[in-house]
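User: Predict the structure for this protein chain, please.
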Amino acid sequence: MTQDIGPIGSGGAVSGTRAAGGARAIDPEKLKVAQQFEAIFLRQMIGSMRSSGLAEGMFDSSASQQFRDMADARTADEMSKTGSFGIADMLIRQFGWDKPAASPQAALRGIAAIEGDNAAMAATTAKGKTP
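Assistant: Here is the predicted structure, written as structure tokens:
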């Protein structure tokens, strides 16, 4: 089973919606991993914003701090699911998860092309010329 992602910056591209211009399919497990990373990043960002805090008051306690941390984590998880920050979308594109996997024959052709280039370079270098 796969989900579709659209172009970068389409807002909600990672949420599985189909964007105009031809979206690509992605494995839902990889989508989940990218969203989890985005959630971790957002948790860290929200925590840093809170710790800069002018919000210390006389009713602050360890219990209210723990509740605030849990609420921040939940907020970050929900924010990552919307795809509005685009971090998960960029990870998917960076790792090439939005592209179809190459066939074994295509991989072998690529290796043969690299080996052919290396042989040509070695022959040229042996003659004293640089390519």
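Strands lie at 3-5, 24-26.
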